[in-house]
Amino acid sequence: MLSLRTMRLNSSKISLVFTWLSYGYVAVLVVSSVSHFFFWDTVQLASKHAHFFYNDNFESILLPEHLDSGHIPTFGWVLGLLWSVFGKSLWVGHLLMLPFGIGIVYQLRKLAQQFVAPPWTSVVCFLVLLDPTLSSQLTLVTPDIPLVFVFLWLVNSVVKNHRIGIMFGVALLFLISMRGMMIAFCLLLLDIMLNTSFKQPGKQIFMNLCKKSIAYFPAVIIFIAYFGYHYMEKGWVGFHESSPWAESFARVGWKGFLRNLGIFGWRLLDFGRIGIWIALLFLGIRFRKQLFQRDRKPLLLLALVLFCLLPLNMLWAKGLLGHRYLLPIYIMIALVGLFTLTSEAISKKLRVILLTGIGVLLITGNLWIYPPKVAQGWDATLAHRPYYSLRGEALNYMKTQQIPVTESGSFFPNTASFSAIDLTENEQRFHQFNGKQTYVFYSNVYNLSDQEWMWLETNYSEVKRFERAGVWVAIFKKTLP
Description:
By secondary structure, this protein is mainly alpha-helical. Helix content is 60%, strand content 6%. The chain has two domains: 355 residues, no CATH class; 93 residues. It is globular and about 75 Å long. The termini are far apart.
């Protein structure tokens, strides 16, 4: 009895430690980033959207054409509203992420508790949070963190057949983005598969489906109201040929599809996630019965649905395979593997070894930095964090050397105005690099085309470099007329 009591005490302590580690990890990521300026797509999806509503006194619900990427701009509207209450500061946006980050931990724990016995619920939750892309997004002001929170809330609601939770979850996903709508569709399929009995007469099945569909009506109303109004005002929905993002939505042929398929596979393994796939392969060979246990059916179904449907439209498009777009897939695949590893059929020693290995690979995944000519998802890993201070040092150098920003070239995401990036009153901006500027502000966190990189190497020489932890920012000067 003493031994059993001791084991229970140890289990309780481990659970408590990893619970606090999970909440603490999220809090540290968010709070340590409160002074970070807007980075990557957040310049567009957070700062510029919020600026428009803030400056427009919230008189319009539609964005101007050059900012409208097709989504319902709820996130920008909320951020702009918070600026109007607390002041236009970087910390406001970052602290907006904190309740959603805490909510992600809470929803992960709720989901784990349905499939895993303690203390492994807390361990699994912590390991999921270590995913470099999820960790990196927690340091940014981005709609993807609310999206992940609502996604997990909706998964829990569907698994428990909680119709009110489903109603709110689907409506919120529709309000966040078009990708949220696709995720909601995947959860709709899971809802039908889990919560509908097809052994009843056809009429009864139809009546049950109609009754369950009530939870989806608010989302349908939101969709019809917003996009109907959008179409009447602008004549398009989603994107249009003159859109700044039209190239990303451009369709590719079969060759492009196969290339995207390879990129999709790379995304799934990237930044340490290969450890989860190795564990899944091992489990599939050695512990197949545990992997396909009936009590884990909802997770397996959802992972399969997301894996097959969510990237479908992305694979046929030219530039829609960003790491963050695949966060729900990363999370569900990780949960399937990690939940299976906690099965009693697997020895504790083997379990600890595999879980530790997965954790180490995910942590070190933030150290993966590819060669300069290989495009990398810099917003998908914590490796980008030195860029914030390095950019400041490089800008100070330009100021002391009297190198004019307005006559210098740069690249995405550094071509927006300083007011949009840093929330200063400075409306200066770097011009998009065209090979004609005397100076160029460049960092290895900018993904250049081969042509741009070759032109930069051939026609410019490095004047000054600032470097830390594999990230660098450099000032180049033109050497040839």
